[in-house]
C-alpha cells in the first residue's frame, strides 16, 4: 500500500520547503507539480505545438507521460522515457509552460499523471487544491498556513538577506491580493479540505513545522 500526503495552503506558507524536507526525512517522493507543467511544455516545444491553439493542445496531451524519479537524492523528471530535467528551466520552456498551463486539458492530464504516481509510491504533494481536487483520497491532508504578517515578514527577510530592496507594506499587500485571487478562482479555489489538519506556522520555525507534520503523518499510519 502506498501513502500519499497532501499539503495545501496560501502563498508564502512554506509548503514546498516543508514538503521537500518531509519527503527527504521520511523517504517519500516529493512531487514537484510545477516541474511537471514544464515537462509538458518540453513536449509541446519538441512537437511544434502552437500554444495559442487549444485544439492542438487538446490533441497533443494524449501523447504525454511524465513521472518523477530520484537519482542520488536528486529529482529527475522523465518525459516519455527521456530525462528532461536539464531542459526545464530554460526561458523557452518557461514561456511555453506559462502559455499552456491555463488549458483545462493540460491540467486534467497532469492531475491524472499525479494520481498515477500516488498509486505507485509514497508521495508528498503541495499546492492549493491537492487535498480537495488532485488527491481527494490522500491518507493525510495538511492545511499549512500562517498569518499574513508572518508570511510577509518571512518574504521581506528572505529578500533582504539577498540584498534586494523591498517594501514590507507592498509585500503584505501582494500576499493579501494573492490570497483573495486563490480563494476566489473558478477552478479549484484554495480552501481547507474537510478532513485536513490545520497547521498554523506563524510562531513556528521550519524544524518545528517538519516535526509537527511528521507526527501527524505517523499518527495517521
Please tell me about this protein's structure:
The protein has 221 residues and is an alpha/beta fold. It folds into two domains: 1-28 and 123-221, Rossmann fold; 33-121, Rossmann fold (3-Layer(aba) Sandwich). Helix content is 50%, strand content 17%. It has helices at 15-26, 33-46, 54-60, 91-100, 104-120, 130-134, 148-161, 168-184, 206-220; strands at residues 4-8, 29-31, 66-71, 74-79, 82-83, 123-127, 140-145, 197-200. The chain has a five-stranded parallel sheet with strand order 2-6-1-7-8, with helices on both faces. The protein has a three-stranded antiparallel sheet with strand order 3-4-5. Helix 1 (15-26) packs across helix 9 (206-220), helix 2 (33-46) packs across helix 5 and helix 7 packs across helix 8 (168-184). The N and C termini lie close together (11 Å).
How are the SSEs placed, and which strands pair?
Elements: E1 4-8, H1 15-26, E2 29-31, H2 33-46, H3 54-60, E3 66-71, E4 74-79, E5 82-83, H4 91-100, H5 104-120, E6 123-127, H6 130-134, E7 140-145, H7 148-161, H8 168-184, E8 197-200, H9 206-220
Helix pairs in contact: 1-9, 2-4, 2-5, 7-8
List keywords for this structure.
9 helices; Cytidylate_kin; Rossmann fold; three-stranded antiparallel sheet; 221 residues; five-stranded parallel sheet; P-loop_NTPase; transferase; 8 strands; 2 domains; kinase; alpha/beta; ATP-binding
